Amino acid sequence: MANRAGGDARPWWIAFMGAAALAGLIMSLACSSEVEQTAACADEGQVLDVGFYAFFAPMSYSGSESPGAPGFDSHLGYEADLLTALERMDGAGLAFSRKPIEQWDDIWLKSATPEYDIVGGGITILDSRTRNADGEEVVAFTSGHVTFRQSLLVRAEDEQRLSSHDKLTSGVRVGALANSTGEARLLEITGIVNADGALAAGTRVETPDGEVTADGSDSYVITSAKETPNLAKRQRLHPPSDTMPQVIYLGDELGEIELLEALQDGRIDALARGEIGNRDASHATNSQFVVTALDDAVERGGFTLSVDDADLLSCLNEKIDYLTDNRNIGYAEWRADSSVFIRRAEEWTGG
């Protein structure tokens, strides 16, 4: 992809050079810097295809909850505004055609296919997500543009009862989206999996092909990037201990919308996912849902590109780092003022 001090104590070379020569050098350096700053990321007239996850408000979501409905192709949220700001940057040469993606499974790998140049949707940056099933590195992540922490979302009346992960027992049903970092951290924190993702011995998992029981080996593994084939399309997880929760899997059709509906109608007691989405849901329900069990671990989210698009990746990283002020501007600043990225893009134009 085609992408300083006063007085007479001056360095001898400044005293030696004529004023005209020095002016020419300064102008040359300035022009070089300007060319570097405004270098286009794509060929003139090129439109990059961006796939975005359609069901992760407020990070990245569709203008309609129903696939195929008018507005479903409309991209909204934090990442949508960041992409729009990239398009506004003078000289960046970026134009995007955005297409919603309904399925979360391996969404990060889709940028390695001819259908997409870039893929986003609140995707946590993990080395394991850069590799395909054969272990080959096929995608790369851009600079992290947002910070995540995992958490639980619960009904307000359960705030104290489910205030931390160590209060999750086998009588508690926690909803999760398979292969998300919300699922992976829930399983790890509660001890259902070990550091390598292997399920604890005695864990029973309901799947479309019947129930399987883990033996503690690497034949039964769940991580945020993969699972062993015998655990694909899992529907429910029964823990081996009373001090661990049940896990209910939803979201195959409408992503986290299904999980929020299940929490609302009582089919699950908690939802394991990132703090940003959970805070947004709490606000949207006037605190009928509340956020608990904040994780100490910090994650960063980015876009993925084909590993072969090194020039585009480098160019995007430069622009993303500028728009986020090297990660000093993120979700909180955007939430307070959704025009923050556009204004920085316009300042780049002015510079």
Q: Using DSSP, what is the number of strands?
A: 17
Give the N-to-C terminal Cα separation: 27 Å
What would CATH call the class of the largest domain?
Answer: Alpha Beta
The arrangement of helices and strands along the chain is HHEEEEHEEEEEEHEEEEHEHEEHHH
* Net shape: globular
Mean pLDDT: 90
The helix-and-strand class reads alpha+beta
Number of helices: 9
Within the largest sheet, what's the order of strands?
Answer: 12-11-13-14-10-15-9-16
What's the CATH H-level superfamily name of the largest domain? Periplasmic binding protein-like II
Description:
This protein has helices at 12-16, 19-37, 78-88, 181-189, 256-265, 275-284, 310-323, 331-336, 340-350; strands spanning 48-53, 55-56, 60-62, 75-76, 96-101, 118-124, 139-141, 146-148, 150-155, 173-176, 204-207, 210-213, 236-238, 246-249, 270-274, 289-292, 299-306. The chain is of the alpha+beta class. Helix content is 27%, strand content 21%. The protein is globular and about 60 Å long. The strands form three sheets. An eight-stranded mixed sheet has the order 12-11-13-14-10-15-9-16.
Draw up the topology in text:
Layout: H1 12-16, H2 19-37, E1 48-53, E2 55-56, E3 60-62, E4 75-76, H3 78-88, E5 96-101, E6 118-124, E7 139-141, E8 146-148, E9 150-155, E10 173-176, H4 181-189, E11 204-207, E12 210-213, E13 236-238, E14 246-249, H5 256-265, E15 270-274, H6 275-284, E16 289-292, E17 299-306, H7 310-323, H8 331-336, H9 340-350
Helix pairs in contact: 3-9
List keywords for this structure.
D-Maltodextrin-Binding Protein, domain 2; globular; 9 helices; 21% strand; disordered N terminus; 8-stranded mixed beta sheet; 2 domains; alpha+beta; 6-stranded mixed beta sheet; 351 residues
